[in-house]
Design a protein that fits this description.
Blueprint lengths: L26 E7 L5 E3 L2 E5 H9 L24 E6 L25 E3 L6 E3 L18 E4 H8 L5 E5 L11 E10 L5 E7 L16 E3 L2 E4 L6 E2 L15 E4 L9 E4 L1 H12 L3 E9 L7 E4 L2 E7 L25
Parallel strand pairs: 1-18, 4-5
Antiparallel strand pairs: 2-3, 3-15, 4-17, 6-16, 7-16, 8-15, 8-17, 9-10, 9-11, 9-16, 12-13, 12-14
């Protein structure tokens, strides 16, 4: 899923030459969860990887430990990851039957959905060509994986989704709006639980209102004193921010991921759901696309920082990352 609320976007097509033989696992320690680093959208938390990079490099205690950065995201660099969405310019990545892929043949998992190029302005898994899957519980119009197989893939690490968005242009012209649901289903396709990434609450209709989509804008400044975002969509470089503040660029090119998205609730219940033989099912939609090559995958070796105490002076930090001068909501 780039910052799922002001994601990174840049329109450079993925090229077949991006593939390489040296595939490596994605390894990342996210910053500690606090009101500076983390924004909550319904049932999910999100962090801007560029903000994490900038503030951890500055030895800002709110962002340490964190890294390494940047997080590579070209097809050849994530070919061994559990890929949910991938661009249509370049060779498709298979989650099964691929010698370097994440799952052995016979695993209950879908191959990636193909995201559209810039000539198509919206995407929905529910309307996209089905990437395959003949296992019990597989549903048309969503991406499924056996939770037991997913736990084997994670091998003790947290469930973290990484998103590489690729819009064209700058400022508000690169705004992308995103919505997603992760459902827990049994092998008959019956929903057992659900967590949603949106501006709403709970799990709503799979045909969300436009007001429930999370907007993503690629560049802004963040106050180190208050955590407030400003010059959203108008800041072009560090010189547009006040001295000492962070310039955040969530539009890092097709080779770097911009956002990490995770749900503590999902992560904490995976084992119980695996014991029931359940599957994880993902339904995703976005609009405002002007370039394409968006990629979403489940990281194999990522861990999110647990909540840490904050200094009293930081207890009321406002939005640090995303949102047109809105106040950041604390993690539930």
């Amino acid at each position: 899923m780039k910052s799922f609320s002001y994601f990174k976007l840049i329109g450079v097509p993925l090229m077949a030459c991006a593939f390489s033989a040296g595939v490596q696992a994605t390894v990342l320690q996210l910053a500690p969860i606090n009101s500076f680093t983390t924004t909550t959208y319904n049932g999910f938390q999100i962090q801007s990887l560029d903000l994490n990079d900038k503030c951890s490099s500055a030895l800002d205690p709110r962002c340490i430990p964190s890294g390494p950065y940047p997080v590579q995201s070209s097809p050849g660099q994530i070919n061994d990851q559990a890929v949910i969405l991938t661009g249509n310019n370049g060779n498709p990545m298979d989650n099964i039957g691929n010698p370097s892929g994440p799952f052995p043949t016979g695993t209950a998992v879908d191959n990636p959905f193909i995201t559209p190029d810039g000539s198509i302005t919206s995407f929905a898994t529910s309307a996209a060509p089905e990437p395959g899957g003949t296992f019990a519980g597989d549903k048309t119009g969503s991406w499924e994986v056996s939770i037991a197989a997913l736990l084997t893939y994670l091998n003790g690490h947290d469930l973290v989704f990484l998103f590489d968005n690729n819009q064209q242009g700058g400022g508000l012209n690169q705004s992308l709006s995103i919505w997603g649901q992760v459902s827990i289903i049994n092998t008959s396709g019956v929903v057992q639980d659900c967590v949603e990434f949106s501006l709403g609450s709970g799990c709503g209709s799979t045909t969300p209102l436009l007001t429930d989509y999370v907007p993503a804008i690629g560049n802004y400044c963040v106050s180190t004193a208050t955590g407030a975002a400003y010059a959203v969509g108008t800041a072009g470089n560090q010189g547009d921010c006040l001295a000492g503040d962070y310039f955040v660029n969530d539009n890092l090119s097709t080779s770097n991921a911009e956002y990490a998205v995770f749900s503590s609730y999902l992560n904490d219940h995976l084992q119980a759901w695996a014991d029931q033989g359940y599957l994880l099912s993902i339904n995703m939609k976005y609009f405002g696309n002007n370039a394409g090559a968006e990629q979403l995958w489940i990281c194999s070796e990522c861990d999110f920082g647990r909540n840490v105490p904050e200094p009293a002076s930081m207890a009321l930090l406002g939005v640090a990352l995303l949102g047109l001068a809105a106040t950041r909501r604390r993690r539930a």
